[in-house]
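CO-FOLDING WORKSHEET

Operator: S.A.
Ligand of interest: magnesium ion
Run index: 441
Mode: holo prediction, single chain
Checklist:
[x] sequence pasted
[x] SMILES validated
[ ] output reviewed
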Amino acid sequence: MKILIVDDEDMQRETLQGFLDKKGYSTLTAANGREGLELFNTYPIQLVLLDHKMPDMNGDEVLARMKEINPLIHAIMITAYGAVGTAVKVMQLGADDFLEKPVDLVELLAKIEAIEQQVAEEEDVAAVNETIDRKEMPLQVIGESPAMRKLLSVVQRVAQTPWTALIRGETGTGKELIARLIHLLSPRSQAPFIEVNCAAIPENLFESELFGHEKGSFTGATGRRKGRFELAQTGSLFLDEVGELPLSLQAKLLRALQEKKISRVGSEEDIEVDVRVLAATNRDLKQQVTDGHFREDLYYRLNVLEIEIPPLRNRKEDIPLLVDFFLERYTQHPIRFDPEAMATLIKFPFPGNVRELEHIIQRLVTMARGTVIKPADLPAEMRFHKATEQGTLADQLESMEREMIITALEKHDWVQTRAAESLGISERVLRYKMGKHSIKK
Ligand SMILES: Nc1ncnc2c1ncn2[C@@H]1O[C@H](COP(=O)(O)OP(=O)(O)OP(=O)(O)O)[C@@H](O)[C@H]1O
Ligand SMILES: [Mg+2]
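OUTPUT RECEIVED:
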């Protein structure tokens, strides 16, 4: 990484440069803002260490001008001791970090390493997005959260290797999507991507599904048939829900992975297979190994590279982006969420993750009459969840009461007599409570 040091104090500049050169960085120095900008215009600089107070131009201004030239520039501002106000301002200007004088070199190094890590990640994510755009891929992966960017960066690197990867994540987090993305980003993208759902195939048919069979090898085997391993030749084989694989078949799969050879059911002949295996599970496979349900040797074969997809509740920043994405996919009309409805959505923990969100949006656009989705349009469990998440007991009871009344009214097409009956209150009390909570159809 090329680092530019801009500081008007000779001593400080020399100390920083000497230290960073020794650590193997390539550095340039400037004694004032103007010189700094000149160098910045000439060399591909990725990080600047900026003294905040300089005679010709302060650090803020230098950084602002650099950002105009290259918005992706990374910066660490070096400020006077105790100048917290400046520090806040500096971060607002888009510096990655700041250090107080006198500069602690160990701390400086840690910050530079953190930025390097981030730069590497940004490059990976950019490469993924570029490939998706360039190849007009049949899939899109939405997510700008730090967790998602980290994931995409891992995916980009995993895709370039030939090794087996195990994708883990709760239900609906996007395991299959990520497996497809890895395939499409890999050198095998032109070859087939073949999926095997280990939970869906009956045990007695599994071997033939995976490895194929010869004619007459078992009752019902009326012809010779290729298995999925062979179909995936030179491509990728996706073993979905691999945790459901019966023990008897785990041994056979292990052999195929170890020897890169298979034989069809009813045949002695070995067939060489060149297949990249991707596996996914929503189970704790390690635990299954401990419990004796999954072979340890197979586990290590599959888990050469490990990819963990974070649950949606740990990357809530992605919810609005996903909402827009699914709205666009499932409706032609302009439709949007009002802020309160969006806030309710964001608070929901989504046990079914992205798939659950997708289904909710599908349902909402099907049922919506207007162009704005309001909290009352959301599924009851969401509105309830919001009610139980915050506030004092009295607040919670209030909002729970409100939710229950709305739900009952909706369920009975806003016929108050029946809604009141289902709630076990009189119609008069219902009307009073509707007034209190300002509930209108
Ligand atoms: N980041 C994302 N961007 C866009 N769509 C997504 C994203 N993540 C998941 N989806 C969509 O959510 C749905 C569920 O994803 P997928 O089937 O890959 O999940 P899964 O982890 O395999 O689920 P399961 O454990 O139930 O098999 C799919 O329609 C997928 O396209
Ligand atoms: Mg799946």
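REVIEW:
The pocket of magnesium ion (ligand 2) is lined by residues 175-176, 240 (CB under 6 Å).
The radius of gyration is 29 Å.
[x] output reviewed
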